[in-house]
Amino acid sequence: MHLKQGDEKPFIDPTHHTLIGHRFCPYVQRVRYTLHYHQIKYDPVYVALDAKPSWFLELYPTGKVPVLITNQGKVIGESIVIMKFLDSLCDPDASLLERCGDAEFTKAGDYISKLSAPIFKIAFHKDTSSSVVESLHDSCSELNAVFKGTYFSGPKLSLADLLLLPHLDLLELALAYAESVEVAHVKEFDSNDPHYQSWPKLIDYMQTMRKLPFVMEVRNPVSAVVRYWESMRSGHPNPDL
């Protein structure tokens, strides 16, 4: 249940980590993947982004999610900062950031910035102009060319992968809108998808990531993503589908 303006502040256990977020926000999903990969216990609190509760704005005036309240009472914002903080809580040998390094992590973020811009123009602003669609295709082709192994940085999963996946999970939806495909017919990528010929490495990567147990614990399937974005585009966002 996403808390809205007028809803009371929930009890926040000071001995637990608490993640304040939104079920369909890719920036929140990055953090959820990090928490679940490292098996860090936390309490989730969801807020409606179109009607943010006053208690949340008092806690974090920018109103952006995610926000992590640590079990030491520290309030941390910005998904990348939270991901790195959580990763630092584990043993150095288990660090996902160490597997890719800061440079590769930043590189993954740069690719996501390129990809996210046309995705949100298409999905949110309903802009399917040829230049925007071409930008989406070019971003996918560029990312497809990056993969040299199973994961973004090679044979091992890293923090860069947890950064990428939540945004890639919007790709099927954006392509459907761009190509005027009925949303009822949108399905998750597989090797039979017509886009597979253009981006085989990217789609193989997405399939691999989606099968990881910690991802399956919290990932929203494309069917749920479609329903949420349809509610967004109708002017009545409903994250509690």
Plain-language structure description:
With 241 residues, this protein is α/β, with parallel strands linked by helices. Helix content is 49%, strand content 8%. It is built from 10 helices and 5 strands, in the order E-E-H-E-H-E-E-H-H-H-H-H-H-H-H. The protein has a 5-stranded mixed sheet with strand order 1-3-2-4-5, with helices on one face. Helix 1 links the parallel strand 2 (17-21) and strand 3. Helix 4 (96-123) packs antiparallel against helix 5 and helix 5 (130-144) crosses helix 8 (200-210). The longest helix is centred in the middle third of the chain and has 28 residues, at 96-123. The radius of gyration is 18 Å and the shape is globular. The termini are close together. 35% of the residues are buried. The mean pLDDT is 97.
Q: Tally the beta strands.
A: 5
Largest sheet: 5 strands, mixed
Instruction: Indicate the mean pLDDT.
Output: 97
Along the chain, the helix and strand elements come as: EEHEHEEHHHHHHHH
Shape: globular
The SS-based structural class is alpha/beta
Helix count equals 10
